[in-house]
Design a protein that fits this description.
Layout: E1 11-13, H1 15-27, H2 32-51, E2 56-60, H3 64-78, E3 83-87, H4 94-102, E4 107-108, E5 117-123, H5 135-146, E6 148-154, E7 177-181, E8 184-185, E9 199-203, E10 214-216, E11 236-240, H6 245-256, E12 262-267, E13 283-286, E14 294-299, H7 307-318, E15 323-325, H8 328-332, E16 343-345, H9 349-359, H10 367-378, E17 381-384, E18 390-392, E19 398-400, H11 413-427, H12 431-449, H13 455-469
Parallel strand pairs: 1-8, 2-3, 2-5, 3-4, 5-6, 6-7, 7-9, 10-19, 11-12, 11-14, 12-13, 14-15, 15-16, 16-17
Antiparallel strand pairs: 1-10, 17-18, 18-19
Helix pairs in contact: 2-3, 2-4, 3-4, 6-11, 6-13, 9-10, 11-12, 11-13, 12-13
Length: about 475
Amino acid sequence: MPRHPDADLAQVLTVAQTRAAEAALIAAGTGEDALMQIAGHGAGEYVRRIAAGRVVTVLCGPGNNGGDGYVIAQHLAANGNPVKVLAAMEPVTQAAWNARNLFTGHVVGPEGATEGGDVLVDCLFGSGLTRPLAPETLALLQQQAAKHRHVIAIDLPSGVESDSGVALNPGLPHNDLTVSLGAWKHAHFAMPACASLGALRLVDIGLGAMPGAARILERPRMVAPAPDAHKYRRGLLGIVVGDMPGAAIMAAEAAQRAGAGYVRLLAQDPGWRAGNPVPPELVVTLGGVDDPRMAALLVGPGLGRGDAARALLADLLAQGRPTVIDADALMLLGPDLALPPIAVLTPHEGEMAALEHAFGSAGTGLRRERALALAALSRAVVVLKGPDTVIAAPDGRLVVGPRASSWLSVAGTGDVLAGTIASRLAVHPDPVQAAGEGLWLHGRAAALAGAAFTASGLAHAIRDAMATAIAV
């Protein structure tokens, strides 16, 4: 389908925001039945292409998600694809009844659910579901999923809570494809739901931009250096070497491939090289943290957690430079250490809990809510890492990362992410943009590195990831 000229397809909406956006569209003159036809035909085309002439079963529920199912079924039938409709319940909304009446094929109830097929389309319940499926409904869904080779969920899989990504029932089927209608929902990118959604596609129905909506992380459009660029103009990044130098070296390997013009390892101990081979292209400076040309700093990977490390961290933060704070440094932060005006915190779950304690955050609610709360209290950009990473800004902006490759679950990949974000921050001083660019490059590098890569392999793949993000 062609893109609606006023649509915003990068936003990630809550249930309330989705309803408000749909209401605005209806108020502007697009009727509910017309919206259902647009959504159903768009989703139906995805189903048709995947079915490729094979038998499709559309499992319809009582609400508007079921209505979408009847439109999908009619679209398939009109295009010559074998389709049968299984109505788990009778429609309860006028729009769903209207869609059912327009379907010219045969509809059977749960008692007719005897045969299987090739493709099952789950249109039981959509994004408004807040309570578990009834036992008989869950059993019907599970039985039909087991009888079909492929399962496609429309908007969201039935039994998933849209705003949280929580599975409201145990034993929900795995999906090969989920087709979102109108806008992305938080469950499309939040664990545990996102692990079972399969591929993701979006049908544009013309929803406009909603104030305060989260954004999906999109491919950045980075530009090549200026014709007269030199290493300092491109950005000098200092990476502090601590008790475990290997982590800083790994971060530097990634940073060198993410766009910074000059990456320096800033060592405090002249004897640190013993047993720590450094790639010949990496520059090592003893001290050097006060170089006025330093565009950004990275502190934390392998820093250590002793008194000396905390004193060094305090000195670095007091300089007020744009700084990425990772790993050990996150565990050393406290209310007595003022963060610089431009700072990016990159915690995993354990480090997040320590930061919430340090900054007096309640640590309750959804991951995105916790990240936003910490960002507001710390006045720093927070990259809450995990298979469902989010980026939260102090001003309330939220960027939602796509689900990460499970191959990233190997030691050292966090150092690679920190170095990549810091490299981007050295290129320009926008912390939200740098965090987004770094996260995208990290995920893209994982895809390019394939299976069972090491952190070093991931760091080297950052260069190829950069090549796919350079604007031409």
